[in-house]
Design brief:
With 128 residues, the protein is an all-beta fold. It is 0% helix and 45% strand. The strands form two sheets. Strands 2, 4, 5, 6, 9, 10 and 11 form a seven-stranded mixed beta sheet that branches. A four-stranded antiparallel beta sheet has the order 1-3-8-7, with no helix packed on it. The radius of gyration is 14 Å and the shape is globular.
Amino acid sequence: QVQLVESGGGLVQAGGSLRLACAASGRTFSAYAMGWFRQAPGKEREFVAAINWSGRSTYYADSVKGRFTISRDNAKNLVYLQMNSLKPEDTAVYYCAADDRNLYSTNYYSHVSDFSSWGQGTQVTVSS
């Protein structure tokens, strides 16, 4: 199972930006999809964005389309989430996830169940 470590969370004012990063262990990073999810207090974990193994396909929740961008650097085993125009409702713990059981998958990613490995999460707080 791949090990995932998130970084980049913090406190930002509404309208500001943050970039999250997720470092993955292992030699097959370039062969599987990655995703970002978030969980606010008292709410279920929800999908934010995903990117396929090659980086050519990306998927976004409607709530973040046009504001967030997911990308990956397969040479460095890193996936990023650039978050712009942040809103107080974006406040949550953000989790990185990997579909490391399905290499070179063509799935459409949008659910918690699509991913098998998870990081510990990083807190993002957006003040109004």
